[in-house]
Amino acid sequence: MDEKSVQNYSRLKDDPEILLQFVNKYCTVELIKNTSFSGFVHSIDPISKSIILAVPCENSFQITLLPGHAVTNLFESNQENVTSPFEKLKDENTNNDIAARKSKVMDWFKLNLLTVTESNENIVFGNVSILPPYNVTDICTDNPMVAMQVRKIIERMPDD
């Protein structure tokens, strides 16, 4: 296995920007008791530092939750001719579809008398950011209660 950069996870935990660089990349995560998992990093919890990893398993992927307290090292490694499960999701959404969805979500918030703005390609609502492709799973905030309320608003949005 060719390691690109070995990182001591205890040093990385304090820098969320570095942790964000590992998202959607093929990485190896070493755990206590000499255990390791390799797969695509789906997300890293900013509070507990737990890692959600999509581990290749035959023709699909197994989603594995690795508790933050058990992680000792994290490093990007070579993928073994496996395409990321997240690239498939990106291909399904064209730029026109994403732009239309963004406009629709922003209009829905405004219709509900909520102030929304744009920041780059994100929709910003207070301390909440909604990332492309602007679905209920793309809500980013530190407050789970707020995330749940924003999710409910988006779920009530009509399909047409």
What does this molecule look like?
This is Gem-associated protein 6. Residues 69-160 form the AD domain. By secondary structure, the protein is α+β, with helices and mostly antiparallel strands. The chain has 2 domains: 7-76, Roll (SH3 type barrels), CATH 2.30.30; 95-155. Helix content is 29%, strand content 34%. The protein has 5 helices and 10 strands; from the N terminus they run E-H-H-E-E-E-E-E-H-H-E-E-E-E-H. It has a 6-stranded antiparallel β-sheet with strand order 1-6-2-3-4-5. Strands 7-8-9-10 form a 4-stranded antiparallel β-sheet, with helices on one face. A hairpin with a 2-residue loop joins strand 8 (122-125) and strand 9 (128-130). Mean pLDDT is 83; it is low at 1-5.
Mean pLDDT: 83
Strand order of the largest sheet: 1-6-2-3-4-5
Which of globular, elongated, flat, extended, rod-shaped describes the shape? Answer: elongated
Q: Rg to the nearest angstrom?
A: 18 Å
Structural class assignment: alpha+beta
Through-space gap between termini: 49 Å
Low-confidence spans: pLDDT under 50, at least 5 residues? 1-5
Second-tier CATH architecture of the largest domain: Roll
Estimate percent helicity.
Answer: 25-40%
Query: Largest sheet, if any?
Result: 6 strands, antiparallel
CATH class of the largest domain reads Mainly Beta
Binned strand content: 25-35%
Fill in the CATH topology of the largest domain.
SH3 type barrels
Number of helices: 5
Number of domains: 2
Number of strands: 10
Name the helix and strand elements from N-terminus to C-terminus, one letter apiece. Answer: EHHEEEEEHHEEEEH
